[in-house]
Design brief:
The protein is of the alpha/beta class and 139 residues long. It contains two helices and seven strands, in the order ββαββββαβ. The strands form two sheets. A five-stranded mixed beta sheet has the order 4-3-5-1-7, covered by helices on one side. A two-stranded parallel sheet has the order 2-6. Strand 3 and strand 4 form a beta hairpin.
């Protein structure tokens, strides 16, 4: 279990679960998938279901396992979904997910100054969360 200095956290990295939007998965299911891969826990700190329900993942004081090379200074947030029922990428999140993410960003901004929101695609060859961060239109 990697403990970290949370004062070094400077970014939030947004992911998608790459699951079909016509099926619902709980944070416990994602945790089980990650543990089967040999991880100590779910890789993300937060998970937002399609209906906007915010679920806690890994504790913030623990290093995440969501973005290679960026885990010690970031918070991992995963959106349920990412794929249409036919398997093609789903290119936006639900309005409920967007609102929950916005409220989470506000809450985290109280604790952590200077946080920047990034998509996983900025740090890898993945397209996750399958849309550009600017498309969230929070501001």
């Amino acid at each position: 279990m990697d403990i970290r200095d949370i004062s070094k956290i400077n970014k939030i990295i947004l992911h998608c679960a790459d699951t079909p939007i016509n099926k619902s998965f709980d944070v416990s299911t994602i945790r089980d998938w990650h543990k089967k891969r040999g991880w100590s826990d779910i890789g993300y700190h937060y998970y937002i279901k399609l209906d906007g329900t915010l679920q806690k993942g890994r504790d913030l004081w623990r290093v995440g396992s969501h973005t290679k090379g960026e885990n010690t200074n970031s918070i991992g947030v995963c959106l349920e979904g990412g794929r249409n029922a036919d398997g093609t990428p789903w290119t936006i999140c639900t309005s409920q997910q967007r609102e929950s993410l916005k409220q989470l960003l506000i809450a985290l901004g109280v604790t952590f100054t200077g946080l920047q929101l990034h998509g996983h695609y900025e740090f890898s060859d993945k397209t996750c969360p399958n849309f550009k961060i600017e498309d969230l239109k929070f501001w």
